[in-house]
Amino acid sequence: MKVLVIGLGGVTNGGKTTLAEKLKKMLPNCDIISQDDFFKPESEVETDEHGFKLYDELDALYMDEMVKSIHNWMKSPASSGVVTEETQNTCDNLKNRDDVYILIVEGFLLYNYEPLNELWNRRYFLTLPYEECKRRRSTRVYQPADTPGYFDGHVWPMYLKYKNELEENSSNIVYLDGTKSQEELLSCVYSDIIQELKKVKE
Questions:
Q1: Contact, 14 vs 127, CB < 8 A?
Q2: Which end is more exposed in the chain, N or C (fewer Cβ atoms within 10 Å of the end residue's Cβ)?
Q3: Which SS3 state, helix, strand or coil, does residue 155 take?
Q4: Is 173 helix (H, G, I), strand (E, B) or coil?
Q5: Rounded CA gap, 64 and 84, in Å?
Q6: DSSP string computed for 81-132
Q7: Are the C-beta atoms of residues 29 and 99 closer than 8 Å to each other?
Q8: Fold entry, domain 8-39+49-60+100-201
Q9: CA separation (Å) from 82 to 154, 173, 195?
Q10: d(CA 14, CA 185)
């Protein structure tokens, strides 16, 4: 049994979750792990001198738990509840050694944590210009809510910091323009993953 681990990272409100969910519907034996599920409780997230909760940093997340979850999935993807219903109904499919199981990991800080970087087969990174990102962010309701000045004081500077780190230290990342239509992004990433699937099956 083979596995394909796809990273879908990038800017806040760039469309990562939407794209991941659409890909899941189109790809066989596909599951999603979302980085947002690994945030520490608010009481454990540090506050800076401006009173901003530092959510956009690695320290705000249980990253070791996230890595463990991905490893657990990789060990037995067929039993992770991932398998599509059609596949569950056909025992032959489960016996098929050529089956490839796909995991999409989506989140805003995927490629700046070394233990994760050993796992990716493909890595995508969604970008947005400042104005568009700020506009989208202002339409979303967060728990806890963004405080006044939070986007400019914490969210955007952290995005730029981690993106610069990434550009200096990493290669083989496909950058995607988050202002493109969802259909265009889906088509681009889907065809790329299908090519990767073919390689894995060979």
A1: yes
A2: C
A3: helix
A4: coil
A5: 28
A6: T-S-HHHHH-HHHHH-TT-EEEEEEE-SS-TTSHHHHTT-SEEEEEE--HHH
A7: yes
A8: Rossmann fold (3.40.50)
A9: 36, 26, 22
A10: 11
Calculate the alpha carbon distances from 69 to 10, 19, 35, 62, 149 in Å. Answer: 20, 21, 11, 11, 34
Backbone dihedral angles phi then psi of residue 39, each to the nearest 5 degrees: -65, 140
- Residue with tokens 């490629």, as numbered in its chain: 111
Contacts of 174 (CB under 8 A, 6+ apart): 122, 123, 124, 125, 189, 192
Distance CA 152, CA 146 (A): 11
Determine contact, residues 124/9, Cβ cutoff 8 Å: yes
| pLDDT value of residue 80 | 63
Cis peptide before 144 (omega within 30 of 0): yes
CA gap 40, 52 in Å, rounded: 15
- Intervals of the chain under pLDDT 50: 83-95
Tell me which residues are annotated as active site: 36
